Amino acid sequence: MSGADVNLVLRSTRVVTPGGTRPATVAVADGTIDAVLPYDAEVPAGARLADFGDDVLLPGLVDTHVHVNDPGRTEWEGFHTATRAAAAGGITTLLDMPLNSLPPTTTVDHLRTKRQVAAPKVHVDTGFWGGAIPTNTKDLRPLYKAGVFGFKCFLSPSGVEEFPELDQEQLARSMAEISDLGGLLIVHAEDPHHLEAAPQRGGPAYADFLASRPRDAENTAIIGLIAHAKRLNARVHVLHLSSSDALEPIAAAKREGVRVSVESCPHFLTLTAEEVPDGATEFKCCPPIREAANQDALWQGLADGTIDCIVSDHSPCTTDLKTPDFASAWGGISSLQLGLPAIWTEARRRGHGIDDVVRWMSAAPAELAGLTRKGAIEAGRDADFAVLAPDETFTVDPAGLFHRNQVTAYAGKTLHGVVKSTWLRGVRIADEGVLTGPTGRLLERNS
Ligand SMILES: [Zn+2]
């Protein structure tokens, strides 16, 4: 310990470190982790001690897939409400998706607008993905220089007209440009031709909706994406994997050295098609929640490392857009505040430990985005933490969520794991659901 500068010491019998979970004392100086010390290390004179007993001290979660929708669709969400929900849920860093806000993050000017809007509102550290659309190949380089963490594209319609999808030729062109920058392309991978060919019956039946977004649409898009990445030696990331059939080609590509990474989401890993009531479009997202057997295979993909990380894909809207017709309802699931307990509940049931959850929800997303100061409790990283009571349970009451719209597929579920407090750069920003003012910073790539 460097001694004089340490102003905060956190202690728990269960501190999740890269080397495992153990009793430890964490010394913090000026918002940065100074040292991870033995449990009974002496507290320096003048330092404040926060002793969490047997509650788990874990690195703050990093959620690289959040649709904040601000400015432009702030009735859906916004930087204030989204980052408050994040803080309450143990997330200390989030990356905002480039679409559903107006403007979308497809030019440097648009990025500037978003940063100006976000700056005074963020309760957690916040960064931005850029967007790759058919018309902005020339904007990718300046956007990257301006600090976006990489670029998102769609291969099928995104749901909003200002963010069109790329065809295969445009995909190859954007990927080559981004690869040339040394950047990362993150992809909504559903093949438009398979979607067009699928039966589009509409209506309230979940089975019909599921049939309209078949696994083959994902599988085909992912296999094509891997082929492009291999040919261009580009770095690509598969967003929100739902189809477990794609695990095998992804695993094979990884073995071959193709630079592909993969995320899945709490809804694919904790909810099943079998349980979605007809008309319950709070469960609608694209790709869709699939069958229980598919979910088992996704967990196997997490266990064997084919899936790298778990992020929310929090994509809210107003209540009126969740009509009971699965074809016309807005697709997107709200879960920013609930991801940690939802995943922890299912992970522990399947025999995983909290170390696994921290790897999937903090370390791996931080690594994906190149956030070298986030994602681990070790010296030199930001003093970002969540304190979790892993055995306590609660029942999800939508009224208790900080999301702008309290629509959630998790309503009424009893979950394990209560987030007691959240710390950002050594300051407690959430304490038993009570939040401080916004002290988050805007992040740029490599910052
Ligand atoms: Zn998304």
TrEMBL record:
Pfam families registered for this protein in UniProt: Amidohydro_1
Keywords: Hydrolase, Metal-binding, Purine metabolism, Zinc
Molecular function in Gene Ontology: allantoinase activity; cobalt ion binding; zinc ion binding
InterPro entries (UniProt xref): Allantoinase, Amidohydro-rel, DHOase/Allantoinase_Hydrolase, Metal-dep_hydrolase_composite, Metal_Hydrolase
One GO CC term, this protein: cytoplasm
Domain Amidohydrolase-related, first and last residues per copy: 56-427
GO terms classed as biological process: allantoin catabolic process; purine nucleobase catabolic process
EC number: 3.5.2.5
Swiss-Prot/TrEMBL cofactor(s): Zn(2+)
PANTHER family referenced in this protein's UniProt entry, alphabetically: ALLANTOINASE
Family: Belongs to the metallo-dependent hydrolases superfamily. Allantoinase family.
NCBIfam families xref list: allantoinase
Official protein name in the record: allantoinase
Source organism: Streptomyces finlayi
Gene: allB
